[in-house]
Design a protein that fits this description.
Largest sheet: 6 strands, antiparallel
Number of helices: 3
Helix content: 25-40%
Order of helices and strands: HEEEEHEEH
Shape: globular
Strand content: 25-35%
């Protein structure tokens, strides 16, 4: 996964989700739950890469940050509960999908 479209397509394949642009800045797109409107993925471009903020169980937060140099404390969100995944090709797609699915589940 390297593009915003790929990330959003994966997120929107999850049941009961939709995309939204909550800011005047078109760079930011979020994936939300239909019923609650809670955000589970913040997708944006920064420093020439696509970034995705995903909620994470604090129990796994540090392990993911240590395992992948491109998983860092979330940009503009609570760093205890959210990670930023920098889609620079170093985090396998399977792991990106797993983190997005966890975020989807944690925000239901």
């Amino acid at each position: 996964m390297k593009t915003k479209d790929e990330v959003l397509a994966y997120c929107l394949d999850m049941p009961g989700t939709y995309a939204d642009q909550p800011f005047r800045d078109k760079n930011w797109t979020v994936a939300r739950h239909c019923g609650s409107a809670k955000v589970f993925a913040w997708v944006f471009e920064r420093d020439g890469c696509v970034w995705v903020n995903a909620k994470c169980d604090p129990e796994w937060r540090d392990a993911l940050r240590q395992r992948f140099a491109s998983v860092v404390p979330a940009y503009h969100l609570n760093k205890t509960h959210w990670n930023s995944i920098i889609l620079d090709g170093t985090v396998p797609d399977e792991d990106v999908r797993s983190m997005l699915l966890e975020s989807y589940e944690l925000t239901r």
